[in-house]
Amino acid sequence: MSSKKPRDIFDYFDELFKEMEEEIAEFERRFSRSLTKGDVDLPKEGPYFYGFRVTIGPDGKPKIQEFGNVKKAKGRPILSEDIEPVVDVIERDDEVRVIAEVPGVDKDKIKLTVSGSELHLEARGDERNYSTDVDLPAEVDENSAKASYKNGVLEVVLKKKQKKPTGKEIKIE
């Protein structure tokens, strides 16, 4: 008899979080070294935002979404004037709902552009600017877009494009 117990789901999450902690620690070390050497051009005095969140995708695999104004490219930190906001995309039967956190801006300073299956968000505030491109899970009807903004949370609801059947019916003789 084997005394080895089966692994439970929390063991996988423990491993995932340990790997993420190691990656974040390495990123912080590289970022600090780059600042010390002067390899990073700071666009302005802080604040600097960096964060991530982990969700489980429809395929059952974890998805990591980074947000903030600090990115990593070719092993170097890249700082941006614009903050990439936290964005949720919720797909329903006939609609796609996008929820973005963009605190500190007036609603008349938010610009949204939708094309096909992509939504571009740009928001300009006195102290913060946000910008991101959101890949939507389906093509949407641009004319159906409705947006609301309250307490720093932007919500955009878009109807999915109705797919017309393609092909030609074949009559049986």
UniProtKB/TrEMBL annotation:
Domain (SHSP) ranges: 78-173
SUPFAM superfamilies associated with the record: HSP20-like chaperones
Domain of life, per lineage: Archaea
InterPro entries with a match to the protein in the record: A-crystallin/Hsp20_dom, CS_dom, HSP20-like_chaperone
Domain CS: 82-171
Gene3D superfamilies according to UniProt: 2.60.40.790
Membership in a protein family: Belongs to the small heat shock protein (HSP20) family.
Protein name: Heat-shock protein Hsp20
